[in-house]
From TrEMBL:
Top-level division of the source organism's lineage: Bacteria
N-terminal signal peptide: none
Family (UniProt): Belongs to the Orn/Lys/Arg decarboxylase class-II family. LysA subfamily.
Source organism of this protein record: Anaerotruncus massiliensis (ex Togo et al. 2019)
Key words, A-Z: Amino-acid biosynthesis, Decarboxylase, Lyase, Lysine biosynthesis, Pyridoxal phosphate
Protein name listed in UniProt: Diaminopimelate decarboxylase
Lineage of the organism: Bacteria, Bacillati, Bacillota, Clostridia, Eubacteriales
Pathway: Amino-acid biosynthesis; L-lysine biosynthesis via DAP pathway; L-lysine from DL-2,6-diaminopimelate: step 1/1
Its job: Specifically catalyzes the decarboxylation of meso-diaminopimelate (meso-DAP) to L-lysine.
Length: 430
């Protein structure tokens, strides 16, 4: 990504800083994030939305990708909205005074307590997933003398990964209301008669790490089709269309992600055409990128330990982290690029399996990874780990979570401290 480089010592740099020095200063494993890169991503999304929707749009950052106080502050300063999916994410946002009107509360099974917290904080939009939640939210709002502004989560029946556009292909999802069974329209009818909720629009999210634009165009068409049906059936024209996130990033050199601007232009075109054809006003558009805002801005630094060559089979290179700080290989066989940070200029002549330190054979960061030759003590960098790494980290084997160092204009600061052994036993009763 744009924030990476190489210095005169042949060391990998991020945001202009020497990664080997950062590893020495803060220890490993270490997450490093370039704030300038995060801000650039926010800005280019914001500019595209303004260009194609003339200010009638909002970029909301999906905080599940990486949520901490520092990131919530950055996103607030950049003027974005925030997508939260739990009381914990909401609490983090609240703790930095994130403007509640710009928060969207998602999730397929929000608890009673979470809905109350959302109402009390004045969360701008609650994305309602199902009938039970609709009824519950209505009651909670009425009993507090409030009206919650809501969107409905809809299953548009698009599988972005297989390019399938089958109306029945996605009924089997735990998220949202189906179109083809009439469920979504029934929810609209019920909401219209309720006093505690005000239905503002509809939302969908068709998948993650998507490289093609067509599924997003299809989704916009299907959703607007439903909005037209709602207008015909109830006489109400919904104001907001939230198209979710899912834009893919470059994990490997051969990945070719969609340019945000190109995506926005094409989807805006589909929105305009469909609105014209169906006699709708162009709704206010919301998008919810997570991965593409923070993913490319981060990397993880490890110290190499044992090298184990199994002749004719593979070479294991072990690092001082693993599935605890990056569970994406064990969960999804997600590919990453790695390098020896202290010899980054050398050619990648080796193929290794990068292994973690957990007591579990599957604890790998990757297989068949092209790398420079590595020895114990080398600093290993795994790239594009800014999204869904810290966010999904665990304490498996009672290994403390690494800290997060944020770089801004070349200056480093710790935004999440390294966990201590004391942190690990904090909730244990004696
Ligand atoms: N909006 C909604 C409603 C979502 O469910 C998600 C992601 C997003 C936005 C943001 O999607 P993004 O732009 O980050 O692709 N743990 C997985 C990713 C799960 C994504 C779930 N939803 C991973 O590590 O790849």
């Amino acid at each position: 990504s744009d924030c990476l480089g190489l210095n005169a010592l042949g060391h990998l740099t991020i945001g202009g800083r020497d990664t080997v020095e950062l590893a020495q200063t803060y220890g490993t494993p270490l997450y490093v994030m370039d704030e300038d890169e995060i801000r650039r991503a926010c800005e280019s999304y914001r500019e595209s939305v303004n260009r194609y929707y003339g200010g009638r749009g909002l970029v909301t950052y999906a905080s599940k990708a990486f949520c901490c106080k520092a990131v919530c502050r950055i996103v607030a300063e950049e003027g974005l909205g925030l997508d939260v999916v739990s009381g914990g994410e909401l609490y983090t946002a609240k703790s930095v005074g994130f403007p509640p009107e710009r928060i969207f509360f998602h999730g397929n099974n929000k608890t009673v307590q979470e809905l109350i917290e959302a109402l009390e904080y004045g969360v701008g939009t609650i994305v309602v997933d199902n009938f039970d939640e609709l009824m519950l939210l209505d009651q909670l709002a009425v009993s507090r003398g409030k009206v919650a502004e809501i969107l409905f989560r809809i299953k548009p029946g698009i599988d972005a990964h297989t390019h399938d556009f089958v109306r029945t292909g996605q009924i089997d999802s735990k998220f949202g209301l189906a179109l083809e069974t009439g469920e979504a329209m029934e929810a609209v009818r019920q909401a219209v008669g309720m006093k505690g909720v005000r239905l503002k629009g509809v939302h969908c999210h068709i998948g993650s790490q998507i490289f093609d634009i067509e599924p997003f165009e299809h989704a916009a068409e299907v959703m607007l089709g439903f909005m037209a049906d709602v207008k015909a059936e109830t006489g109400r024209e919904l104001e907001i269309l939230d198209l979710g996130g899912g834009f893919g990033i470059k994990y490997l050199p051969e990945h070719d992600p969609v340019q945000y601007d190109r995506y926005m232009q094409r989807v805006a075109g589909a929105v305009e055409r469909t609105c014209k054809a169906r006699g709708l006003r162009t709704p206010f558009i919301v998008i919810e990128p997570g991965r593409s805002i923070v993913g490319p801005a981060g990397l993880t630094l490890y110290t190499a330990g044992a090298v184990k060559e199994i002749p004719g089979v593979r070479t294991y290179l072990s690092v001082d982290g693993g599935m605890g700080d990056n569970p994406r290989y064990i969960l999804y066989q997600a590919p990453y690029e790695a390098m020896v940070a202290n010899r980054a200029a050398e050619p990648k002549t080796r193929t290794v399996t990068l292994a973690g330190r957990c007591c579990e054979s599957g604890d790998l960061i990757g297989e068949h990874m092209q790398m420079q030759e590595a020895r114990a003590g080398d600093i290993i960098a795994v790239l594009a780990t800014g999204a869904y790494n810290y966010a999904m980290a665990s304490n498996y084997n009672r290994i403390p979570r690494p800290p997060v160092v944020m770089l801004r204009e070349g200056r480093a600061r710790v935004v999440v401290r390294r966990e201590s052994y004391e942190d690990l036993v904090r909730n244990d009763e004696d």
